[in-house]
Amino acid sequence: MANSSNKISFFLNFALVLSLLLLLITIAEGRSLFGCDLFKPSSTLSCDKVVGVKSDDTCFGLAKTFNLTETVFDAINPNLNCTALFVGQWLCIDGSIN
Ligand SMILES: *[C@@H]1O[C@H](CO)[C@@H](O)[C@H](O)[C@H]1NC(C)=O
Ligand SMILES: *[C@@H]1O[C@H](CO)[C@@H](O)[C@H](O)[C@H]1NC(C)=O
């Protein structure tokens, strides 16, 4: 009787320790993810070359002209609305993100 109750309490303690450990790991991971999210917007984008939009230019066409992948083009032109390009708008066609 006492023996089985000891086993149960040992198991409960073990489960408690395990769940606390998992909780701590979750918190630690959450913090690092949060820190990463905080860091991302503060990464600096430097644009080395810009081009002015001419009539009939499209994001796709410009990316192709300057040999940029869509991913790179989007990365160096954050918050760009490609359906609302206007003539004379400056687009980045060469840059780096640090
Ligand atoms: C475009 O990129 C490809 C592959 O990197 C390269 O071979 C080609 O010369 C580039 N073209 C221009 C116009 O830069
Ligand atoms: C992009 O521009 C178009 C045309 O002005 C507009 O309808 C659309 O809502 C814009 N999209 C975003 C994400 O701002």
From TrEMBL:
Keywords: Chitin-binding, Signal, Virulence. One of its GO terms (molecular function) is chitin binding. InterPro entries: LysM, LysM1-like, LysM_dom_sf. SMART domains: LysM (SM00257). Residues 1-30 form the signal peptide. Residues 49-93 form the LysM domain. PROSITE patterns: LYSM. This is LysM domain-containing protein.
